[in-house]
Amino acid sequence: MRIFKFGGASVKDANGIKNLAKVLETTGYDNTLVVVSAMGKTTNRMELVIKNYFENKHELQSSIHEVVKYHDDILVDLFDNKRHQVFSDVKTLFDELNTFFKSNKSPDYNYVYDQVIGYGELISTTIISHYLNEIGLKNNWVDVREFIKTDNYYRRANVDWEKTQENISSQLNARILNITQGFLGSDANNFTTTLGREGSDYTAAIFAYCLNADSVTIWKDVPGVLNADPRYFENAQLLHQISYREAIELAFYGASVIHPKTLQPLQRKEIPLYVKSFLNPEGSGTCVSKEKGINPTVPCFIVKKNQTLISLSSLDFSYIMEENISEIFSLLHLYKMKVDVIQNSAISFSVCIENLFDNLDKLLQHLKAKFKVVCHNNVSLYTIRHYNDDAINDLEKDKVVLLKQLAQGTVQVVTK
């Protein structure tokens, strides 16, 4: 049993979907589960739909229409007959979306987000499943929400592993080609939940763990895991082999190729993860497994943009001790801030965070009641694994360094 995951870039248009079919024909597709994300930038478009629902209702239908048109254009390119069942199935999904907006009574943004955002995945997999059947690659369309069960922590739900294992073991026919959605699950009330942005990789790992899969392959538009994002760094190199431990470190610090939660369930059962190019399916790519270290051993660069650096100091020059630090972390948890770097001295405490839930102003107001607060918005956090002096010097060139922290094997630098 193999798990394949295709991201939005791989299925952004009709040619991408045709290429997905070629990948399956090249690699084989028996005993395969294919996890697919929303097409192209659909998730971003759906986030605009949600924003308009709350803030700009007269633009709501216009933003929905943009999503409809994008998918209609792909449908017309893939299917000659407009009476094909796929057109009706996709229309039904958009009708469901509009019905939700008309009937919803909840003011909870996170709840609404999760009920709406997943239509991108539901529509993409519906189109792909029909297309594969049309060209002779018979498959079963699977609603992932019937299998992956979670709590109701909307937008970042936690998996109920026992119920999920039971559902997958008892209900999924693993001997055939299955097509399902990434990113989604459902809670005890069958409301849709999401696993966090980029959660489709995690979906693949959940199925792999529950099915004792032979491998997971993530198909990307890059040849494998690189030592740096080529959008920000020149001369990025392919890493042929990475250990689970090293990959988890890279994911923790923000490497975009592998989702941070993806690797833990694979490591538990020693299921290898391959990252390969959907443009070159026969290429070797990168293998993540129980082997040691990385190959080749080179500095690995990671950058996270649009971060916030908060520096705190006591109002009376007293020490920032355990009690203060405990209170700071309680507030960071309360306002759902993702902490990337911390640094403290006797009378100061700095933290670099991601403002994922737009609660920064509330957090700052709370902190200013007890501390002197300096806040730097839109900073960049750079991390170098296996650094050397040349790597650090090249990184810091022509940048204003706000915070720098070195540990064995890793350096982190916050810059303006």
UniProtKB/TrEMBL annotation:
CDD domains: AAK_AK-HSDH-like. Keywords: Amino-acid biosynthesis, ATP-binding, Kinase, Nucleotide-binding, Transferase. Residues 3-277 form the Aspartate/glutamate/uridylate kinase domain. GO terms for cellular component: cytosol. It holds the Pfam family AA_kinase. The keyword Nucleotide-binding applies. InterPro entries: AceGlu_kinase-like_sf, ACT-like_dom_sf, Asp/Glu/Uridylate_kinase, Asp_kin_monofn, Asp_kinase, AsparK_Bifunc_asparK/hSer_DH. Pathway: Amino-acid biosynthesis; L-lysine biosynthesis via DAP pathway; (S)-tetrahydrodipicolinate from L-aspartate: step 1/4; Amino-acid biosynthesis; L-threonine biosynthesis; L-threonine from L-aspartate: step 1/5; Amino-acid biosynthesis; L-methionine biosynthesis via de novo pathway; L-homoserine from L-aspartate: step 1/3. The keyword Glycosyltransferase does not apply. It catalyses: L-aspartate + ATP = 4-phospho-L-aspartate + ADP. One of its GO terms (molecular function) is aspartate kinase activity. It is an enzyme of class 2 (transferase). ATP binds at K5, F6, G7, G8, R231. Substrate binds at T43, E121. One of its GO terms (biological process) is lysine biosynthetic process via diaminopimelate. Its EC number is 2.7.2.4. Belongs to the aspartokinase family. This is Aspartokinase. It comes from Winogradskyella sediminis.
